[in-house]
Design a protein that fits this description.
Elements lengths: L8 H10 L7 H7 L2 E4 L6 E6 L8 E8 L4 E5 L8 H9 L4
Antiparallel strand pairs: 1-2, 2-3, 3-4
Length: about 100
């Protein structure tokens, strides 16, 4: 059965670190210039944006947290969405 408890980004960060994963490490986030745009939903899917530099528009990705192991995966392609609205629409249509 899938765990439908909602987790905050703070809880996910803590679990990810305890699981010896590095997704939320400061260096990792800074390297990709990552921002958390939308908090996780009931399927643990959240939205991030990244940009390689300040002159390039941000692009958006869907991410999924896995409570059993603490890992975070990208759903679909990295930087798949040009706008936050596109990413939000895609998150609503994700089937697991």
């Amino acid at each position: 059965m899938f765990n439908t408890k909602r987790f905050t980004i703070a809880q996910i960060r803590q679990h990810n670190k305890a699981a010896k994963q590095h997704w939320f490490d400061e260096r990792s986030m800074k390297y990709f210039n990552t921002r958390i745009e939308i908090e996780p939903d009931e399927n643990h899917i959240f939205i991030t944006s990244e940009t390689p530099d300040d002159d390039t528009p941000r692009k958006f990705s869907l991410r999924q947290y896995h409570p059993r192991c603490g890992m975070v995966d990208t759903l679909g392609e990295f930087w798949k969405y040009k706008t936050l609205d596109e990413a939000e629409d895609a998150r609503k249509n994700v089937t697991l």
